[in-house]
Write a structure and sequence with these properties.
Layout (H helix, E strand, L loop, with lengths): L2 E6 L4 E8 L3 E9 L1 H5 L6 H19 L3 H5 L3 E7 L3 H18 L3 E5 H7 L12 E6 L4 E8 L2 E7 L5 H11 L6 H9 L23 H16 L6 H27 L3 E5 L6 H10 L6 E3 L11 H12 L18
Parallel strand pairs: 1-4, 4-5, 6-9, 9-10
Antiparallel strand pairs: 1-2, 2-3, 6-7, 7-8
Helix pairs in contact: 2-4, 5-11, 6-7, 6-8, 7-9, 9-10
Bound molecules: 5'-O-[(R)-(carboxyoxy)(hydroxy)phosphoryl]adenosine and zinc ion.
Length: 333
C-alpha cells in the first residue's frame, strides 16, 4: 500500500489530497478562488498566490488531522509546472518542508501529466497505448501515451487554447469568469446549428487554432449589433460550443486513424462540459473504440490527479531533490 500526499497550487485552485496506490482517493479538498478573481474578469496572479498562502495550511489540517495520519504517508507529490510562478511556489515550498521534516521522497509532478492521470482515479483506466486529448485553460494538446509516463506530443494549439476561447468569448458576451461553465449554461436551450462558425486548420495535421474562431465570433456579434439584429445568446453560445467540440472531434479522430490506435482518453477542465462529453461518447460509441473520461470532479484542477501521477513517478523512481524549482512553462515532453 502506498499513500501519496499531493499538493496542487498551479493556478486559482488550492488543493491537497491523499491518494492510495494511484487510484483510490482517501481525501481530496479543493478550495477555489474563482469568486475573488471574478470581479477582475480573470485570474490576478498576485492575488492568487496570496490566497493560496492564506488557505493552504487549513487544507493540510483537514486532510492530515493527526500525527498518526502523517505516519501513513509514503511520499509528497507537488505540481511544479506549468502554471503561475507565484502560485506554484506556495505549493512547492509546503511540499519541500513536509518532505524534509517527515523524511519522505519529494515528487515534482507536471500538471499536464496530472490531468492525464485523472483518468486513473476511481475507475477503469485507459489501456495502453492510448491517445489523450488534453483541453484546459492553458493547453489543447493531443498526446500519445505508450505506457506509464511515456509521452509523445502529436498536436498542440498554435495560438489560444480551447479553454481560453471559452473564457474570452464569455467575457466578450458579458458572462462571468471562468467562461466555460457560463457558456455551457447559456447554451442549454440554444440551437447549435443557428450560427455557422469556422473550424480552423481543418485540412492540416493534428494542430489546433482557436484565435480565428474567437475573431470570427467577435466580428459576427459586432456586425449584428451594427445592423441592429437581435443576437440570440443561447443560439450563439450553443453554436460556439458545437464548433469547439467539432474541432476537437475532427483532430482526435484524425490522430486515432493515423496512429491506428482505438484507445482514447480525455483530460482537462473543458472536459467538464456535458455537451462535449456527450458528443465524444456518441462519436466513439462503437465497440471498436475505448473511450475513458475522468469523473467530472477530477477534470478541473485538483490534487487527486497529482497524487495519481505521483504514484507512477514514485514507482518509476523519479524522485526530486530540494533543488527542485518551479517551471511556469514546463512542457509535457
Ligand atoms: O484544467 P483547468 O481546470 O485549469 C487549467 O489547467 O487551465 O481548466 C480550466 C478551463 C477554463 O478555461 C474553464 O473555462 C474551462 O476549463 N472549463 C469549461 C467548463 N468547466 C471549466 N469549459 C467548458 N465547459 C465547462 N463546463
Ligand atoms: Zn489544469
Amino acid at each position: 500500500m502506498t499513500n501519496i500526499l499531493a499538493i496542487e497550487t498551479s493556478c486559482d485552485e488550492t488543493s491537497i489530497a491523499i491518494i492510495k496506490n494511484g487510484c483510490e482517493v482517501l481525501s481530496n479538498v479543493v478550495s477555489s478562488q474563482i469568486k475573488q478573481h471574478q470581479k477582475y474578469g480573470g485570474v490576478v496572479p498576485e492575488l492568487a498566490s496570496r490566497m493560496h498562502t492564506e488557505i493552504i495550511h487549513t487544507l493540510l489540517q483537514s486532510v492530515v488531522d493527526s500525527k498518526e495520519a502523517l505516519k501513513n504517508i509514503d511520499a509528497i507529490a507537488v505540481t511544479y509546472g506549468p502554471g503561475l510562478e507565484g502560485s506554484l511556489l506556495i505549493g512547492l515550498t509546503l511540499a519541500k518542508t513536509l518532505a524534509y521534516v517527515l523524511k519522505l521522497p519529494l515528487i515534482g509532478v507536471n500538471h499536464l501529466i496530472g490531468h492525464i492521470y485523472a483518468n486513473f482515479l476511481e475507475q477503469t483506466p485507459p489501456p495502453f497505448p492510448f491517445i489523450c486529448l488534453i483541453v484546459s485553460g492553458g493547453h489543447t494538446q493531443l498526446v500519445l501515451v505508450r505506457d506509464h509516463l511515456k509521452f509523445e506530443l502529436i498536436g498542440t494549439t498554435r495560438d489560444d487554447s480551447a479553454g481560453e476561447a471559452f473564457d474570452k468569448i464569455a467575457k466578450f458576451l458579458g458572462l462571468a469568469y471562468p467562461g466555460g461553465p457560463e457558456i455551457e449554461k447559456m447554451a442549454i436551450e440554444g440551437n447549435p446549428l443557428a450560427y455557422n462558425l469556422p473550424i480552423a486548420l481543418k485540412n492540416e495535421g493534428f494542430d489546433f487554432s482557436f484565435s480565428g474562431l474567437k475573431t470570427a465570433c467577435i466580428q459576427k456579434i459586432n456586425l449584428m449589433k451594427k445592423e441592429n439584429q437581435e443576437i440570440n445568446l443561447a443560439d450563439f453560445t450553443a453554436s460556439f460550443q458545437k464548433t469547439v467540440t467539432d474541432t476537437l472531434l475532427l483532430k482526435t479522430k484524425k490522430a486515432l486513424d493515423y496512429f491506428k490506435i482505438n484507445n482514447l482518453a480525455l483530460a482537462g477542465g473543458v472536459i467538464a462540459n456535458s455537451y462535449l462529453r456527450n458528443a465524444f461518447q456518441k462519436e466513439f460509441s462503437s465497440p471498436q473504440y475505448n473511450l475513458t473520461m475522468p469523473k467530472i470532479k477530477y477534470t478541473t484542477d485538483n490534487s487527486a490527479m497529482i497524487g495519481s501521477a505521483g504514484y507512477y513517478y514514485l514507482k518509476n523512481n523519479i524522485i526530486a531533490d530540494f533543488n527542485l524549482k518551479v517551471e511556469p512553462n514546463l512542457k509535457i515532453c
